[in-house]
Amino acid sequence: MEKLQRNERIAALIKILSDQPNQLFTFNFFVESFNCAKSTLSEDVEILKGIVERFGLGVVETISGAAGGVKYLPLIGQDKKEEIIYRLCKDLSDPTRILSGGFLYMTDIIYNPAVIDNVGKIFAEQFITKNFNYVVTVETKGIPIAMMTAKYLNVPLIIVRRDSKVTEGSSVNINYVSASSKRIQTMSLSRRALKKNSTVLFVDDFMKGGGTVRGIIELMREFESSVEGIAVLISTKEPEKKFINEYFSLITLNYVNEQENIIDLIPGIKIS
To answer: Is 272 within a domain?
Structure first.
């Protein structure tokens, strides 16, 4: 390969790193790809670090040593994070979203790639220091959020089904009690989906009492694995006492008043 100019190398660097966030690339990988000296590449990386930091695009991290290299962490600046959360609160507070029974219409938000991409970045940033083996969610509305989170954590996504499918082979099925409906429900996961002794991050779009989360925790135990993090887009203020105590919620739903067409939402995390 012919030698590239510095601007060409930096453009290629950011493309490769951003396409595979949280993935460690060795310096030798880029030295061979760009046909350049290691010292030259080190200079390129330092320039790239400055560019990424200046525009608030995340962090380019270098790790020294034989097993080291460079990777890109898509961290969101505090101003951007605050803007995303408050915009979500505003969009979801639209009274036209109120459905019969006090439910909210959220489908357009959940399936908007630009919005959910940002949510995935925020979730990934919150748990970036933990070494999860998987991101886990329950079909269906939590899938887009979980997919983006898994992308930025650079781990596989596992989707737990409401019932078993013949195409997934033998499955583990458990019953759990829904905290909202108080009904017994079922969730299923293929035995091939998850390796034993794994740690997982559970991601979902909505949480009220935490019954689904508790079901996931029990299901993971069947695989001798554990839920080490919980992230939800929206959690409700009530019931105050949920089946779980520790979780990360982007937005808190205080109440929905159908008669007065009011949706009261606030940021669920403190922006500092």
So the answer is: no
**Per-residue pLDDT tens over the stretch 85-96:** 999 999 999 999
Say how many domains are in the chain: 2
Q: 0.85 cut: is pTM over it?
A: yes
Domain boundary among 73, 94, 120: 73
> Which residues does residue 236 pair with via DSSP β-bridges, in sequence order?
253
Give the CA distances from residue 167 to residues 162, 163, 261, in Å, rounded to whole numbers and listed in that order: 14, 12, 44
DSSP string, 54-84: HTT--EEEEE-STT-EEEEE-PPPHHHHHHH
Distance CA 76, CA 46 (A): 20
Q: 68 and 86, same structural domain?
A: no
Q: Phi-psi region for residue 224, left (φ > 0), alpha (ψ -120 to 50) or beta?
A: left
Closest C-alpha to 202, from 220, 187, 182, 188: 220
Q: 172 and 101, same structural domain?
A: yes
**pLDDT (tens digit per residue) in 137-154:** 999 899 999 999 999 999
